[in-house]
From TrEMBL:
This is Helix-turn-helix transcriptional regulator. The keyword RNA-binding does not apply. Keywords: DNA-binding, Transcription, Transcription regulation. It comes from the Bacteria. The keyword ATP-binding does not apply. Residues 183-281 form the HTH araC/xylS-type domain.
Length: 285
């Protein structure tokens, strides 16, 4: 159930949205934008996206490269009923180009490789907490809000995020919003081989629908995404077993396997031995 949903627009684009939900709910939440930055004002520490370990935890921030992903995630806690209240900043590429007059913001650098984390959660810094306290006050004084103020607030949060030293993943997403470099289908797929992405999310990163993504994948790789990705992950595990001292379970999770049992089954089907037997055969040489 949506308890509250208010927005503040800049140049006809929603810039800030304050949404409070009683969860879980089937009511759709509208967060239109290329990317969203959400600050959790209130929550019950329940999972919003379990595969990425993202929770409705007060004082945490979530940056998503897809506004639709954020909109689908916030209403659906994974454990019982709860409350989620969040202030969301919308990033529209068209609006960013207008605000910066086709220049780049300070501290921005061009991407060298595709973004591999489409959604990231982190603890909010004191500066970010103060920023959202200020945004909350804007909702209480809408009569005083001008486009000039909103432009300054947009530039402020972009500067804060581009200077984030605690999370390279956050700065990567922010840099991508201003990136002029385009990556090929294969570059995006190969960069995300070990990421726990659904095919829907991987398709979105390549700017394809799921059906067109599967067709393009088949055309390029001559196999299905599931078969190819699992094969490449298994090969990466084999390479790391030869070179790394990490535990087998750590290597498996690093390469995108959901559990040691899952890794062992897939690995043995490909190499005829378990991961531990494979590692032992190289340690004896």
């Amino acid at each position: 159930m949506i308890i509250e949903h208010r927005s503040i627009a800049l140049f006809d684009h929603p810039l800030f949205t304050w949404v409070t939900l009683r969860t879980p709910t089937e009511e759709p939440v509208s967060l239109p934008s290329e990317a969203c930055f959400a600050y959790i004002m209130d929550g019950d520490n329940q999972y919003l996206l379990e595969e990425e370990h993202i929770k409705a935890e007060p004082g945490k921030v979530i940056l998503s490269l897809c506004g639709n992903t954020m909109a689908q995630m916030l209403p659906r806690q994974r454990e019982g009923d709860g409350i989620v209240s969040s202030i969301v900043v919308h990033f529209h590429r068209e609006l960013l180009l207008k605000v910066y007059k086709n220049t780049k913001p300070p501290y921005w650098q061009e991407l060298e490789k595709p973004v591999v984390k489409y959604i990231v959660q982190a603890a909010a810094s004191e500066l970010v907490k103060q920023y959202f306290q200020g945004v909350a006050h804007l909702f209480d004084h809408l009569e005083a809000v001008t486009n000039e103020i909103l432009v300054l607030k947009l530039k402020e949060i972009i500067l804060l995020l581009l200077q984030t030293k605690e999370s390279e993943k956050i700065t990567q997403i922010m840099r991508s919003l201003f990136s002029e470099r385009t990556f090929t289908f294969k570059e995006i797929v190969e960069s995300n081989i070990c990421e726990p992405l659904s095919l829907e999310h991987l398709a979105a990163l390549t700017h394809h629908s799921l059906s067109s993504f599967k067709r393009e994948f088949k055309r390029i790789y001559d196999t299905s995404p599931g078969v190819y990705i699992m094969n490449r992950r298994t090969e990466k595990v084999a390479d790391l077993l030869k070179l790394s001292d990490k535990t087998i379970s750590s290597i498996g999770y690093e390469c995108g396997f959901s559990s040691p049992t899952h890794l062992s089954r897939i690995f043995k089907a490909k190499y005829g031995v378990t991961p531990s037997e494979f590692r032992l055969s190289f340690s004896d040489k």
